[in-house]
Design a protein that fits this description.
By secondary structure, the protein is an alpha/beta fold. It contains twelve helices and ten strands. Helix 1 packs antiparallel against helix 2 and helix 2 packs antiparallel against helix 4.
């Protein structure tokens, strides 16, 4: 597989074909004009006038062929050169990576020998600077090789832009005459009709999304009402006093639910901004580039970054097989008692209740996440994977189920009640649930009675690692780190069922990680 996209050899062949076509046009013009140059008959003169008209039209379009052929020929040369440079740099990178591994191991081994010696000899310690220099040189060589690949990529892109400008200039310089005007008119009509069709499609999709949200909101509210009625019915079993107590409890719970949901959805969208929580230096225990194996580790990371009542999302951008791929990692609940003293986190109990019970209403959390995605430059057609633990998983499932503004391709969650959500079959879903964790079972409150899922959906439902039971309940079942371990234990199953998830990770290519945060 080539380091850079494009097939230089095929492009060069097509460019040569265009050049030949341009030359043939000139030959035809000359032949047509030479047929009747020396004849004076009336019929021949009429043929001459017709040929002259055809020749004039061919002369008009010839610059388009010639200009396009020249531009593509130049680009083919530049593309060939860029490929050669990139492949040479890739070979250098492969060699440099091997040298780096060897130098790092040699330095580590030497340090271990020095540390192990009670009184290391000068001959041993004197080797340390040289070993360190070798390791540093190896890192520099790796960096240089990667920079050379990027330089070749930039040269290729610059050449492509230059070719496009030359082609546009060749077309624009001859873009005149009646038939060009007719073509432009019908092109404009086509664009207009396409725009109308797109608007109708978007409108209808919006209606469908809204109806889904309303239907699921009604079902969820009915489910909550059933729970409240059950509490009331249980109280009635204990006579008048029990009935009164149950009525008070039901009233308080209902008022609490309504106040929490209304409080969240009526607040404005928080001010979202990009942040650098590590000041440019990642912790030593954090992998530089995410992988499919450690993707759920990011949920614990964003929770830790937001522990001071801040909300932080992590957005990872990689160069995939056919463009940019984005992973959006969402935090779990950071604030449980917002009704009794709001600390500023939007991923709180209020938004939890709103997400589960009223998906038709847009929470602060959802609005802020969409704003962060917009700031990160994610386009409507860019593939997006949503990752989350607990409430972060609820938000991931909610977006994939009810929002059609983005190209959701994957949802990877843990400890989250998303089984009831109408996530399309086109989205890869991986849901990890621990036995004994009550949170994933909150689907029952939302009205889920055992939803059937397609082949796009993988649920991993197992006992948590290192169970920590208190009175028969595993208090550690709802834990982001344990969920990540469980997910890694079942990684082979995930890879086999969802091979397209690999597109979101590129350990040897371009990777960019950004963080966005906000408060209420």
């Amino acid at each position: 597989m080539s380091v850079l996209p494009g097939r230089p050899a095929e492009l060069a062949w097509r460019a040569a074909t265009l050049v030949t076509s341009a030359e043939v046009i000139l030959e035809v013009i000359n032949e047509l004009r030479g047929i009747v140059d020396d004849d004076e008959g009336k019929a021949v003169r009429a043929l001459y006038e017709q040929n002259e008209q055809i020749s004039s039209e061919l002369e008009r379009i010839h610059p388009r062929y010639k200009g396009t052929a020249d531009a593509i020929t130049e680009y083919a040369v530049a593309l060939t050169d860029a490929h050669a440079r990139a492949e040479s740099a890739q070979d250098d990178l492969d060699d440099a990576l091997l040298v780096q591994v060897s130098a790092d191991r040699a330095l580590e081994d030497l340090n271990d020998r020095v540390d192990a010696a009670d009184d290391p000899s000068p001959s041993l310690t004197d080797q340390l600077p040289g070993a360190q220099r070798a390791a540093d040189d190896a890192v520099a060589s790796v960096s240089d090789a990667r920079a050379s690949i990027e330089a070749a990529r930039e040269a290729m892109n610059d050449a492509a832009e230059a070719a496009i400008r030359k082609i546009d200039a060749a077309i624009d310089s001859t873009n005149e005459g009646f038939w060009d005007g007719v073509g432009d008119f019908f092109s404009d009509i086509g664009d207009f009709l396409a725009g109308i069709g797109e608007w109708i499609g978007d409108f209808l999709q919006g209606v469908v999304d809204l109806l889904k949200k309303i239907a699921d909101t009604i079902v969820a509210i009915l489910g909550a009402l059933v729970v409240l009625l059950l509490i009331h019915a249980v109280g009635a079993l204990f006579g008048t006093v029990g009935l009164i107590v149950a009525a008070v409890v039901v009233g308080v719970l209902a008022a609490f639910l309504i106040a929490s949901i209304v409080s969240d959805v009526r607040k404005g969208t928080p001010k979202v901004s990009e942040t650098d929580p590590y000041a440019g230096a990642l912790p030593a225990d954090m992998p530089k580039d995410p992988t499919l194996a450690n993707v759920l580790d990011g949920t614990g990371e964003v929770d830790e970054l937001g522990k001071n009542a801040d909300t932080v999302v992590k957005i990872t951008k990689v160069l995939g097989p056919d463009g940019w791929y984005y992973t959006v990692t969402l935090p779990s609940t950071q604030e449980w008692l917002s009704r009794f003293g709001d600390q500023g986190a939007v991923n709180d109990l209020d938004s939890n209740l709103a997400l589960i019970l009223t998906p038709a209403l847009q929470t602060q959390y959802e609005r802020a996440v969409l704003e962060a995605m917009d700031q990160a430059g994610i386009g409507e057609n860019d593939p997006v994977m949503l990752v989350g633990f607990s409430q972060g998983g609820i938000m991931a499932g909610h977006l994939a189920a009810y929002n059609s503004d983005y190209n959701w391709q994957a949802v990877v969650v843990s400890g989250a009640p998303i089984d009831h959500m109408p996530i399309p079959d086109s989205v890869d879903v991986v849901s990890v649930q621990h036995n004994g964790d009550p949170v994933p079972n909150l689907d029952l409150v939302a009205g889920d009675l055992g939803t059937e899922h397609g082949s796009n959906w993988t649920t991993i439902n197992v006992d948590p690692p290192d169970p920590d039971a208190v009175l028969g309940v595993d208090v550690g079942a709802h834990n982001a780190l344990k969920y990540s371990r469980t997910y890694q234990d079942h990684l082979a199953e995930v890879q086999a069922s969802h091979p397209d998830l690999a597109n979101f990770f590129n350990e040897d290519g371009y990777v960019d990680v950004s963080y966005h945060h906000w408060k209420e």
